[in-house]
Amino acid sequence: EDGSKDVFVHISALEAAGIGNLNEGDSVSFEVVEEKGKVKASDLKSL
């Protein structure tokens, strides 16, 4: 962990990326987007 804040990942973002599940320690790249005043991950890619 690099000390940065956690980012919410919605199941639909995982499904759109073709990622079945996300476990602690898995590496992904993503874009941070704000929607309805909340920050979430988008455009996930498994590394």
> How many individual domains?
1
Class by alpha and beta content = alpha+beta
Roughly what fraction of the amino acids lie in strands? 35-45%
Cα-to-Cα separation, first versus last residue: 16 Å
CA-based shape:
globular
Uncertain ranges: none
Radius of gyration: 11 Å
Total DSSP helices: 1
Query: Helix amount, in percent?
Result: 10-25%
What is the ordering of alpha helices and beta strands? HEE
Q: Describe the strand arrangement of the main beta sheet, using strand numbers.
A: 1-2
* Biggest sheet features: 2 strands, antiparallel
Mean pLDDT reading: 89
Number of strands: 2
Task: Spell out the blueprint of helices and strands.
Layout: H1 11-17, E1 28-35, E2 38-46
Describe what this molecule looks like in 3D.
By secondary structure, the chain is α+β, with helices and mostly antiparallel strands. It has one domain. Helices cover 15% and strands 36% of the residues. It has one helix and two strands. The chain has one helix at 11-17, and strands spanning 28-35, 38-46. The chain has a two-stranded antiparallel ribbon. Strand 1 (28-35) and strand 2 form a beta hairpin. It is globular. 4% of the residues are buried. The model has no long low-confidence stretch (mean pLDDT 89).
